Each structure stands twice: as C-alpha cells, then as structure tokens.
Amino acid sequence: MYQREFDQRLKQGLPKAVLIFGENDYMMDHYVELYRTKLDAKESALNLYYDEWNFEQAKNFLSQTSLFGGTNLVIVKHDKKIHKKELDVLVALANKNDDNYFLYLYDGTAKEAKSMQSAFTDKKGGAWVRLFEANIREGVAILQQKAQHIGLDIDHYALQHLMLLLNNNIALCTNELDKLAILQTSITSKDIDRLVYSTAPLATEQLLIDLFNKKPITATITKLLDLGENENDLLRSTQFFVNQIFLFHAYIKLHGHVDSAAILGYKLPKPIEEQKAQLALRVKSASLLKIFEHLLESEIEMKQAPATQREVLLYSMLIKIQGYL
C-alpha cells in the first residue's frame, strides 16, 4: 500500500508486522519512532541493523514472555532479502502474542521488496508500505511542522530553498533545522546560503552514475543548475568521472580484478568500488574513446559559446554521451 493508506491503517491500530521500503529514509525513521513511542519500547526494542541481523536472535526475542509486562518489538533494517520462511516465522510470532511487533525496513530495490510482500499480507496479520521521495510541497509541509515543533522562525521560501540545496533529503533538512534553531533568530534564504553546506557534489556524482546506467538525467541536470552549479563545473566533473571509469576499465582488463587503491592511489568504500567496476565493465573501449573525443570537442565548443548557449550545449553533451554507451 502507499503511505496515505498506511497512515489511515495506523489510525485503526498498529499492524503487528510491517515491511517498509522505498526512497524516503525520513518517513522510515518516523514510523520506527512512532512504534517505539506508542509501544513504550525505546529502550527495550531489539534493533538488528545490517550485519547485526540474526534470525535466531529475532525469533527467540519474539518467543519469550515480555519482561515486566512490556512489549517485544523487533526492528530489522537490511539491504539484503530475508528468506521467506524466516519472514513467515517472524510474522507468525508477532501475531501470536498481543505484546509482539515486528518491523522490517528493507533498504534494497523495490523489485526485490515486492517479492517479500506475500509474507506481510492482511491474511497473515501483516502490512507493507512503499515510500516515495517527497516532492517539494510535501517536504516543505513536513519541515514546517518540524520548525513549529522546535520553535524555529523560518519562512516558506527559506524552507523551499533548503529543500533544493539538500537535494530534497528531508532527513538532512530536519537536521539542519535543529542546528539553525540554536541561533534563536529568524532564518531567511540568505542565512541558508551562508550556513548550510550544499549536497551538489553528491548530486553530481549521482547524475554521472545515472548517465552511465542510461537512466533519465534531464531533471537532475536542471536541479544542479538551480543549485548554482555552472556548466563548466559539470563539464569538468564529467571529464573526471569518465577518466576514472577509463582507469577502472583498463586496470580490470589488464589484471582481471578491481583494486581502487592501485587505480586511484586511495581505497574507495567497497560498495562504491564495486559500482564503478560494474560501470567500467559495461562500457566498451571503443565507446570510451568516442566519449573522450566528444568531451574534448564539447569543452572547446562551450568555452567559445556565449554564456546563454552553454546550458543547451551541456544537455546536448550529456545526452550524446548516453548515446555512445
């Protein structure tokens, strides 16, 4: 079900077992906090996040008699699927006792999450909810509630600007509101520019990953330009990224494995190293050569073009690169 339906369901009572997945980390945390608060389980809940996951521990926790008449709340967050047989056991245990509850926050793809929905049907006493990234209107409404709650005087336009600056990440925005509240003064858009660090570099990296994965990129380009990134900066970032992909491509071809420390001179986190290796393996050597040539031509063209034409040239450059992949 979608978030609105799930919110209606919560008004009738807390479902005993819930699968939560999607792109909105803030709302994930919100629902966890809701369960912890309503069940008075902030201290007693069993939290099994990522590598902490242990089926026997979760099963034993839900199988025990609740201490001091409290609740047994198990919260699991993982980017890997839990076996359906294990999910069926945990959902059944959650429904076996009035004091038992089970939350599974799945941090993987929506496609994989869908394959686990059958363990959380109404018939089995469960529920599932898919969360989507909040749009600007929804995000500003959430931030307005947060600002009122902490007594921060900030106008609608400043909140919009904050959302744009932090790439619609509500969790980051709410953290920044807490920091801004320390100033105990009215906050404007100028204060946001002065005090809040933009996530544009992260968004640029994601743009280039999407570019090589042949995903839609025009909306992200527009957002980056709105954040204040200029066309020359994005050109240089693209050149740097393509050069890294080439280095990964060449190293893997020569050695048959990936080693970011040998390639770049420093070790990347494992997920990022694997991601760049996958992108490098996917592209052909001939395509990389064409992309390099196209980037050189685009750089000359953009430097010679009037400022009013550079944005169009940037869109054209990136879209053509996708055509080579």
Mind explaining what this structure looks like?
The protein is α/β, with parallel strands linked by helices. The protein has 16 helices and five strands. The protein has a five-stranded parallel β-sheet with strand order 2-3-4-1-5, sandwiched between helices. Helix 3 links the parallel strand 2 and strand 3. The model has no long low-confidence stretch (mean pLDDT 85).
Order of helices and strands: HEHEHEHEHEHHHHHHHHHHH
- Fraction of helical residues: 55-70%
Order of strands across the biggest sheet? Answer: 2-3-4-1-5
Largest sheet: 5 strands, parallel
> Helix tally?
16
Rounded to the nearest angstrom, the radius of gyration is 24 Å
Helical/strand content category: alpha/beta
- Strand fraction: 5-15%
Give the overall average pLDDT.
85
| Regions with little confidence, pLDDT below 50 for 5+ residues | none
How would you summarize the topology of this molecule?
Elements: H1 3-12, E1 17-22, H2 25-38, E2 46-49, H3 55-63, E3 72-78, H4 84-96, E4 100-106, H5 110-114, E5 126-131, H6 136-150, H7 156-165, H8 170-181, H9 189-195, H10 200-212, H11 218-226, H12 231-255, H13 260-264, H14 270-282, H15 285-304, H16 307-324
Parallel strand pairs: 1-4, 1-5, 2-3, 3-4
Helix pairs in contact: 3-4, 6-7, 6-8, 7-9, 12-14, 12-15, 15-16
